[in-house]
Amino acid sequence: MPSMAVIATTAVPDHLRGALSRWTTEVVPGIFVGTLSARVRDELWTSVAETVGDGQAVLIHPAQNEQGYALRTAGTRRRLPVDFDGLTLIRMTGATPPGMAKELQTP
């Protein structure tokens, strides 16, 4: 049975936005809303996760859980979903100052 899904994107390639707009409506820049079957939603999300590049994307869709929705993420992001006794909470990570990323990778 089709259900509503929301995909929020930031800094993704234009061709990905075009692909998303084939199945959903871009209600504001980077926010796509549509009624999709579970199969189409999963296939679309697989494509998003593979082509997100340096951007980020979040998928929210209905689920049979306490919150009533499930959350999936792809790409580089500061907000990380964390399961806390069956509830999905968002943990914020610290921003890495420019130039520090190289120092952090050196053993």
Commentary on this structure:
The strands form two sheets. A five-stranded antiparallel β-sheet has the order 2-3-1-4-5, with helices on one face. Strands 6-7 form a two-stranded antiparallel sheet. It has a single domain (3-105), classed as 2-Layer Sandwich (Alpha-Beta Plaits), CATH 3.30.70. The protein has 107 residues and is an alpha+beta fold. It is 28% helix and 41% strand. It is globular. The longest helix has 14 residues, at 38-51.
Task: Give short descriptive properties of this protein.
alpha+beta; 7 strands; Alpha-Beta Plaits; disordered C terminus
Order of helices and strands: EHEEHEEEEH
CATH topology: Alpha-Beta Plaits
How far is the N terminus from the C terminus?
A: 51 Å
- State the domain count: 1
Structural class by SSE content: alpha+beta
Q: List segments where confidence is low: pLDDT < 50 over at least 5 consecutive residues.
A: 102-107
Largest beta sheet, briefly? 5 strands, antiparallel
* General form: globular
CATH class: Alpha Beta
Beta strands, count: 7
CATH architecture: 2-Layer Sandwich
Oligomer: single chain
- Strand share of the residues? 35-45%
**Cα-atom radius of gyration:** 16 Å
Number of helices: 3
Helix percentage range: 25-40%
Mean pLDDT: 88
For the biggest β-sheet, the strand order reads 2-3-1-4-5
